[in-house]
Design goal:
heterotrimer, A mainly alpha (447), B alpha/beta (328), C mainly alpha (353), B: 328 residues, alpha/beta, Alpha-Beta Plaits, 6-stranded mixed sheet, 10 helices, 13 strands, 25% strand, elongated, C: mainly alpha, 14 helices
Chain lengths: 447, 328, 353
């Protein structure tokens, strides 16, 4: 027991790792004993499961095939669909003229063969150049009474029967030769856009926003406030450990619980959708980049919110009212960010930057998305629409959802840079918040 | 500071060498909340042994302790623990153990886990912390229940857990805010023994309590506060002596109080006699020493039988009552 | 100090069945007589008449206990309930009742002003005789519906915040501070306790949601100088909207109180309420946008009420499923909330938990 008095000068900023792990473990164990932790986390899992179930059901069902150009109908009642008669040169309106009279006679196609006969020809490899293929052979111009010109180039790109993309003003437009890909396979288009919309929409709204704000609201605001309310804060404060450290390590404890949770949920959902989504192989590997972005955005956003709510929790009096009001403000701003990305007021909110991260990574993974959207939307215009011009007034099924969830990033031109900038903004918000929190906390008297 | 003569414990272990810097030093410290003054210009230095901090409710005892623990900031004045201001720098807490009057604990932890986890905040490794925790839990006599959850502990056991947690880093200064509150007599005895032992080891212990008899049994060094002001400081008996203006009383139990009282009235140091009830006589004097010297002779001369002699007001309670304006 | 060594103290006597009967006076004397052990007093209690045996009751007596229920009269039940209600509601605007924070009161006042926003617009259009503007903001099916059930901004921001602030500590504070002991040790039913707390929240919400609807309706009619024909025409719509608003208030209150009875703090119930209303709405909306399936709206309380409200007021339905399903779902949600509330309150301890 006889030791000389211990030196004091190095006592606080030493052995940080031991103190850090001690507080981290304490925080984790506290979370484990609280019912609210389990309730919140399991509600999150249930919500994710419900949405994934809807996704699986949608992917397993086919949307109704629509004959956009109407050539599956047999106008003259001779047993041959109009499209087949048109292709082979017989008259669509004359029952006595049909390919059955050829030598050798050509059997009639069924009506289903002439629905969605143009297939899904969109190729992301050929974005800048010509696309499209006239599968049903109706891209022809009649010459005289019997002849057909096979060279049709109304879009003046010296390629017959194709279409290409061009920026006109702010919109990406489809410039097409007539009757090219006018009866596409809606289901294929829909599945692809639905899959991407799901990943983006669920990633942004479900993950980054709903989970990203409610999980910290429940779990992080009590990090200091509960200790004050329970009266156990002095056990942490009257120790040779600075108050800033206490805040930092408590936040680290929160991170140790919540980040693996988000990452696990993202991985599971990513794997399920990767297998169930439309792909050439057995798994959509290009989606992994998007899911990485979603997980990154969710982790950073929840950390930023956690720092904010922890700070509000230390300002005991009106902190919690402020947290509720702020939460609702963020809700509004996130909605604005998703549906009106150009609105600059949303840059004031934290959630906006999370959305930018997701946007950046999705632009990197799916650079052809804008073209896909332009294609789908071009069906609502009457001219120059290669796809389904007569049926869809709102664009192809799936286009609307996709266009509302997919945005390009508009900070710099480069999506990777934008994502990095947004991550930097979030991290600096966390640091600023922690600085404010520790100065508030350092001056706080504990009764 | 010498321990009270009523103690029966031996001095255990060696004494710590006396540090040059006093463990606790307050200079003209005041603390106010709006218009209410919690502490009013208090200056004192405490070092070594057990010091009792006394005062009625609202005297500022808890405020003083919270300022020492770095939970509150003094509105005026300087506080130094081992020479360092605890509000700005938490370094001195490596040598301090603090038991708050707040009863909150982590009820879901076992006693060992609780002490171990908080010990690690001093910078010990897991192993070191566990060894120290076990040792200190044995010191407070909680060894056989240290794997039970604190939520299931009785009040006395909870107090002992708090004390154990305060002792785990071998502190040189131990601050105990109402450690005996709510404890049953058995727990009180255990805790008091612990405190006495600590004081005997040479550590500085500051303890506040309402239970005056037990403070008296632990220590003779006291600090008395009232309405935030420092009223008295030092050895209990010395303080009592200084209170000359306060008349002393001697209580005698006898079967003939009135006759005995008449005998005493002739003594020049006696200014009053008082008969509170049947068979009891209280003699009032300003000069206790002189009267004590003559007392045996007077009694034998009178010839009456006296069954008990007592100094009813040479205790903390009456000092406190007198000083704080209760008054006899 | 050595009182226990006094040989004059008699032994304790056990009087058993023949013990002295306790009357008020006897007990007082015994209490005064028995000190804390320091004095030498010998307490004596003499029985104040009425019994055959007069005993000296010394320290150590056992008294015969006979309890009689109080035969006095209580205030009528409604008076006691009114006291609880008054305590909670008056606390919003006067001292001496349940304290609400200044932030809460300010936000409630701001919500009141926001709710009257459409009346303000209607007023402006009346002053400047702008018929175009009045067509947009005046009384109509859509506007009456929108006043109580429009999502943006009322049900997205305004109403959830005020509901969250009101129900935050309403039952949980009693659990934390132990003031439930004060309530339950009085002649109060637990049903009354719960009902009055429920009513206190519901009344404030009703004033802010449906009360302002009434103000808007009458204000607009008066300002436009519409006649009785207009009033009779629009009265069913107004009543439909008022009923829908009441259902909304009821749902907010039941879910909110259920959450408050489950937790101990003020914060968790408030945030959970926001989470349930806004979060479920958002998830259901997401599913609808992606998969065009509106069935998940059945889990979102706001959407169920909105759907029923659309049916009541007669505006176009924005959901694909029949409104009776929403009504069923609403009934189920409220039933679950009330069940949780009832079971938590009935198991609340009289002492501090």
């Amino acid at each position: 027991m006889a030791e000389k008095p211990r030196p004091l000068h190095d006592k606080v900023w030493s052995k940080l790792d031991r103190k850090a792990t001690a507080i981290l473990e304490l925080t984790l164990r506290q979370y484990r004993t609280r019912l609210s932790t389990w309730a919140v986390l399991s509600v999150g899992v249930i919500l994710v499961l419900i949405t994934v179930l809807f996704y699986i059901e949608a992917m397993n069902s086919e949307i109704e095939a629509v004959d956009n150009d109407g050539d599956s109908v047999d106008s003259d009642g001779d047993g041959y669909p109009d499209g087949q008669e048109n292709l082979l040169g017989t008259s669509m309106n004359n029952a006595n003229s049909h390919p059955g009279l050829f030598d050798p006679p050509i059997p009639p196609d069924s009506a289903e063969d002439w629905i969605n006969e143009d297939g899904y020809d969109f190729s992301s490899a050929k974005l800048g150049t010509s696309q499209g293929y006239d599968d049903d052979g109706d891209c022809r111009v009649k010459i005289g009474e019997v002849g057909w010109s096979s060279w049709v180039d109304e879009n003046r790109n010296n390629i017959s029967c194709d279409y290409f993309f061009e920026m006109r003003g702010f919109d990406l437009e489809v410039i097409a030769d007539p009757n090219v890909d006018e009866d596409p396979d809606e289901d294929a288009y829909f599945k692809e856009t639905l899959h991407r919309s799901f990943v983006l929409g669920f990633g942004k709204i479900g993950f980054v926003f709903v989970l990203g704000i409610f999980v910290p609201l429940f779990l992080a605001s009590g990090l200091i406030r509960d200790e004050i309310a329970d009266g156990t804060l002095h056990y942490l404060v009257a120790k040779p450990i600075s108050r800033a450290e206490i805040l930092l390590y408590r936040l680290l404890g929160y991170v140790a619980l919540v980040w693996p949770y988000f990452i696990a949920l993202a991985v599971i959902t990513g794997i399920i959708t990767g297998f169930m989504g439309p792909s050439d192989g057995f798994f959509r590997f290009q989606d992994l980049l998007v899911w990485f972005g979603i997980a990154l955005a969710a982790c950073l956003l929840s950390l930023a919110y956690a720092a904010l709510f922890m700070t509000m929790g230390t300002i005991h009096k009106y902190g919690m009212v402020a947290a509720i009001v702020f939460g609702v403000w963020e809700f509004a701003m996130a909605m604005l960010s998703i549906f009106e990305p150009e609105a600059t007021v949303s840059r004031l909110s934290i959630s906006h930057w999370g959305m930018v991260i997701v946007d950046g990574f999705s632009n990197m993974a799916w650079p052809d998305s804008q073209y896909l959207i332009a294609l789908g939307e071009s069906t609502s215009r009457s001219s120059d629409s290669p796809w389904g011009e007569r049926i869809y007034s709102d664009g192809m099924p799936g286009t609307e959802a996709f266009s509302s969830f997919f945005h390009t990033t508009d900070l710099t031109g480069n999506p990777l840079q934008d994502a990095l900038i947004a991550s930097g903004v979030l991290i600096s918000m966390v640091i600023i918040m922690l600085v404010i929190a520790q100065s508030v906390f350092k001056n706080k008297e504990i009764d | 500071m010498m321990p009270d003569i009523a103690q029966t414990g031996q001095v255990a272990g060696e004494r710590l060498p006396q540090a040059e810097v006093p463990a606790v030093m307050l200079e003209q410290v005041s603390k106010w909340y709006g218009n209410i003054i919690g502490m009013n210009d208090i200056s004192l230095a405490i070092s070594g042994g057990v010091t009792g901090l006394l005062g009625p409710n609202g005297a500022g005892k808890s405020t003083l302790f919270k300022i020492l623990a770095g939970k509150l900031k003094p509105s005026q004045g300087t506080v130094r623990l081992f020479g360092i201001d605890p509000w700005k720098n938490t370094a001195p807490f490596a040598r301090i153990g603090y038991v708050s009057e707040n009863d909150a604990l982590y009820d879901w932890m076992t006693a060992l886990e609780f002490v171990t986890t908080l010990a690690r905040l001093y910078g010990y490794t897991r192993e070191e912390a566990r060894v120290k925790a076990e040792r200190v839990l044995e010191f407070v006599d909680l060894k056989d229940v240290m794997h039970k959850e604190i939520g299931k502990f009785s009040k006395g056991m909870r107090q002992r857990v708090k004390i154990a947690h305060a002792l785990v880093n071998d502190p040189e200064l131990i601050i105990l805010d109402e450690p005996l509150q709510g404890c049953d007599p058995l727990a009180r005895t255990t805790i008091m023994n612990v405190i006495r032992e600590l004081g005997a080891m040479g550590r500085t212990v500051i303890i506040s309590s309402h239970i005056l008899e037990e403070i008296e049994r632990i220590t003779e060094q006291i600090v008395i506060l009232n309405h935030g002001r420092l009223l008295a400081l030092g050895n209990v008996h010395a303080i009592r002596d200084m209170l000359d203006a306060h008349p002393h009383s001697i209580a005698l139990s006898t079967d003939r109080p009135r006759e005995l009282g008449k005998a005493f009235l002739d003594h020049k140091e006696v200014f009053g006699v008082h008969f509170p009830e049947e068979g009891k006589l209280i003699i009032r004097t300003h000069n206790l020493g002189a009267l004590h010297a003559d007392l045996p002779q007077l009694i034998t001369d009178s010839g009456f039988s006296v069954t008990a002699i007592d100094n009813p007001d040479d205790n903390l309670e009456s000092i406190l009552t007198y000083l704080t304006g209760g008054g006899d | 100090m050595e009182a226990d060594e006094n040989p004059n103290l008699p032994d304790a006597e056990f009087l058993g069945q023949t013990g002295a009967k306790v009357e008020g006076q006897t007990r007082l004397e015994a209490a005064y007589g028995s000190g804390d052990g320091d004095e030498q007093s010998i307490p004596s209690a003499s029985v104040a008449g009425g019994t055959k045996q007069h005993e000296q009751a010394h320290l150590g007596t056992v008294f015969d206990q006979s309890y009689q229920s109080w035969g006095g009269s209580l205030n009528p039940r409604w008076a006691r309930n009114w006291a609880i209600l008054r305590h909670h509601v008056y606390g919003l605007f006067s001292k001496g009742h349940r304290p609400y924070g200044i932030a809460t009161k300010l936000i409630l006042f701001a919500a009141f002003l926001i709710s009257l926003g459409d009346l303000g617009m209607s007023f402006i259009s009346a002053i400047f005789s702008e018929t175009e503007m009045h067509r947009v903001f005046g009384v109509s099916k859509d506007n009456l519906y929108g006043h109580v059930l429009g999502f943006w901004p009322r049900n997205a921001i305004c109403f959830p915040i005020i509901a969250a602030l009101l129900i935050g500590g309403i039952i949980s504070e009693d659990r934390t501070h132990g003031t439930s002991a004060i309530y339950f040790s009085r002649p109060l039913n637990r049903i009354d306790y719960t009902a009055m707390k429920f009513l206190s929240v519901a009344i404030v919400l009703f004033m802010l949601i449906v009360g302002t609807l009434g103000i808007y309706y009458t204000g607009d009619i008066l300002m436009q100088g519409e006649g009785w024909a207009f009033f009779l025409d629009t009265l069913p719509i107004f009543l439909g909207a008022a009923l829908a608003g009441t259902i909304l208030v009821f749902t907010y209150s039941s879910i909110g109180l259920a959450l408050s009875s489950v937790s101990r703090g003020k914060f968790f119930p408030a945030v959970a309420l926001l989470g349930i209303f806004l979060g479920m709405k958002l998830i259901a909306f997401l599913i609808y946008v992606l998969f065009e399936r509106s069935v998940l709206y059945l889990l979102s309380p706001y959407d169920c009420v909105a759907h029923v409200g659309q049916a009541l007021v007669g505006t176009t339905s924005t959901y694909d499923h029949p409104w009776t399903w929403s009504l069923m779902s609403l009934v189920v949600i409220n039933a679950i909330a009330l069940y949780i509330l009832a079971s938590r309150v009935s198991s609340m301890e009289v002492t501090r938990e």
